[in-house]
Amino acid sequence: MQHIRHVLDAHPASGDPARGPRREAGMPRPHGLRTTAPLIALLALAAVLLLALAPAALAAPPGPTMDLTQLGAALQSGPLDGYLLTTMSGTTPEKIPLQVQSLVEYSDGTLILFEASGPVIDKLGGIAAGMSGSPVYVTVGGSDYLVGALSYGDIFTRGGTGLATPIEYMSAIETTYPVGAAGAHTAATPQPGAYKLTTPVATDTGAVRKVVIAKSVAAGQQLSSSSDQPVVAPLGIIEIGGARPGSKAYDRVAAKFASTGMLVRPASGDGTWAGAPTPSLEPGSPCAILFSQGAVWVGAAGTVTYVDGASAMIFGHPFDQLGAIDAAFTGGYVDGAWPSNIEPYKLIAPRDVKGTCVQDRAWGVEAHLGGAPSLFPVHTTVHYDGRSIDDSSAVDQWLFTSQAYPELPADIASELAYRLIDQSGLPGSVTTRTTVVVSDSTGSYTVQRDDLWSDSYDVSYDVGSDAATALDGLSANPDGTLAPHIDSVTVQADISSAQRSARIAAVDLPEGLHTGANRIVVSYYAYGSSTLQTLTATLDVPAGMPLTGRLSVTPGSYTEDDFMDLTFAARATRGATAAPETLAEVVADLNAAPRNSDLVVSYSAGGDDALAEVGATSDNASVTVPTDYVFSEPFYASATLVTLKAQQRAVNYGGSVHVSGFVDSSSDVPVDIYRRETSQADPVLVTTVTAHAVQGRAVFSAVVPRMRRTADILAVASAGDGTVAGRAKVRVAVRAQVRLSGGAPLSIRVRPATSGTAVVQRKSGGRWVDFRSARIVDGAGTVRLPAGTWTVRARFPGNADCASGMSQPVTVTVH
Questions:
Q1: Which residue, 601, 627, 653, sits at the end of a domain?
Q2: Going by fewer Cβ within 10 Å, which terminus of the chain is more open, N or C?
């Protein structure tokens, strides 16, 4: 699926000082880079805001806490021992010893520098992705105080050095943004950069004098670190479950979320948990945000920092700082941890839904316990080679309404197809039926698209393409007047290994371009066949439209490949002054868009000057032609204007006609002159002349001899580079030659040898009056006259072969 509006594209780039790096909440992160310089700046700003907003009754984590002022004072006496709570297996948190060593000051805030240690850290190789949100405690005077949440870790650095978000920054989210409400950010996310510590901190591997914050794990891997300058990045981990790494769908989803700065990993577990519920959440419990549930799911895993009544704070950094959100919040189960000197991470599987994530802010994510997100069903059925897959999943409505990731259902359908074919790529074709039911306050509407796809590499990804286009188009709201709600998405697909593609070989206008109905002949080769095939379309060109312009034959697949073309083309034609579209109109636009296997034949008239000259009201004519193939390339050519006139519109039998005309060309052009009698299927070449260029037009003339039947005279200027053959025609009638002979009976001969009824007239009183009629067959007939002497003549009224003709009078005597 090409031309997708990325989730993160809607936000400032990670280097934007107002936002800082993006990161995904809660999945195992690579060993190393795990922070962003903006974090510290944000923390300071958040702290100031918190103090300004925090009366005694404000929400706060249960148990004793220590704020930055208190922690800074305690650190005056040296590093503080403590621990972090996190779950390394199953659902039970455990303590990992650490030492808080310093506060790292940024322009916008403060982070807490610590070093974790012990067997878990030694085995893992460092702090693991998925630990983000783990509460950090210090022990002072025999009491444990919650000071923050682990949020950033190191890469390429031995030991467990990391950074924690101060707890007051996280608790401020609860007070600044009431559940479900939107509001201003408390602070900006820390910006990437190198930050010097006011006082060097001694660690097991040496004194740390500077901390480098990278915007993502991938970015951090490109940076060098040392014992005195660790590189840190977000510790969240994005999980993609049920999708195979390497498939287009997996790569697309991973690319969308990788820009958050968090580690993206294939996940364990199922996106819909039907087993026993996990224990009630507590500090250190594994957890996850789920944006989709079912066979294919996407989420972010991490750790609970604290639970405050009906709220829980997690991660210690944003998922993507999206503001108010509506996503499933689940318990988690740690299957294990993957040790690495570069990027250790936890294997966290989502479990039962505990509530709804409602805020994604600079210093963490807030969940409301007991709530339920708004979901819509996604049903996918795929058949291939006698096997099938039938899946029912669910996707967060918020992803659609916020335009964060409206196309996720399409990627789910594509991944299921990839799973069914069970190979890295399947050349072939697929027929799809995509149904999206959407509603608003005015009612319910259905987008339904039946389509054909053909791909020489892999058709599995095409299964979801129409769903992506429809959802992308429905989510767009340029005028801010739409409030659509997705009720359901259904994708049905039949995959075949037979390719159903074709390529256009030529396009012809057999009668030239003219106003009215134009016959268009498209010649093509179907995949696997060397036989040239043709299809015919009729294109109506309105009267008065200029006949110089461009002819195009565009595969519907070219429109499908461009979301803007398919989704917004109809909107563009309405004009800037039109009223905002209704949901019903958006759905109608999507349903009317060409199918992937259609050919759109269109003619666009030459520029505005040409239109004005003839007073035309339209500059485009088009027709959509259904086919059985997906065409690979469009055809574009200029229509060549040719004019033709005859010196005489009717000539005697056997006579000649002089024709002349011009070709709209500034250079000499060969012109073939054809004659096609009414009884002929194909024209016959009479002569070839040269149209000589004179003042921007090429002028020609020719003589067509021996006209024996009424015929169309055609002038054809051959196709050139980027032009189709130009044609013009004029009809020249041939007058019938009629002769009389004999007397009893009277013989009638008509040339051309045609059939019909001749009328014999006699002269009476100076006038000619009808006397007898005679049946003419193949140019001959007879008639009997009564006895007497008669002056007669024969008139043949004409037909498709000839115009009317009259014989010379003859006088006959009949005894």
A1: 627
A2: C
